[in-house]
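PT: before anyone asks, these are the final sequences, not the draft ones from last week. 204 residues across everything. Please model them as a single complex and drop the result in this thread when it's through.
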Amino acid sequence: MKALLHLLTLTACLALAASTASANMVDNYGFETGDLTDWDSFGLGWRTGTGADAYEGTYGLVCDVLDWHTGEEWRGVYQSVPVTSGLSYDAGVFIRTVNLDVSISFLELQWLDDVGGVISQETSASVTSDQAFTLMEIQNVTAPVGAVEASLRGIVQMQSLPSTGDSDFHIFDNFTMTAIPEPGTLSLLAAGLLGLALRRRRSR
Ligand SMILES: [Ca+2]
Ligand SMILES: [Ca+2]
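LR: through. Structure below.
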């Protein structure tokens, strides 16, 4: 009975460890506040939208690339999440694009040091033509030495000014960043479970 209790406790710990490791670290990841709470932005054109602009929930984030946006080549939204140097992470966002002619978008992840300096960065593939909501990913990247935060960023580049009335639209929803469980931690837990199971068998 005692061994069974131990086993249940250990199983619960394992489940907790697994769920903690895969928890999304991004706040207001789906813009369900209806605004840019928890996010910063640069450049023109950012707003929330509803209906077809939401991948999930009520809201999504839209960047309008309009014909009067002269000098607005780079726009972005970003949020910093704490990271541990040496640990690996997955990041993603769903991007939908409409009427693209002169602009592209992608997901970017910058590794920041303790004074906010950029150590290095990773990018997803770029969206260069119209698409329905598609998951754009940066997978299994390791926080470099000195990294204390990651700036998760949705980036739009306007490569030239749209012709009159021919706006481009980039829509983002469900940003995610998750820590990949360390193999060491998982195998330690697995070894613990195995040990307990063996002990239980022997005590029968
Ligand atoms: Ca949403
Ligand atoms: Ca266009």
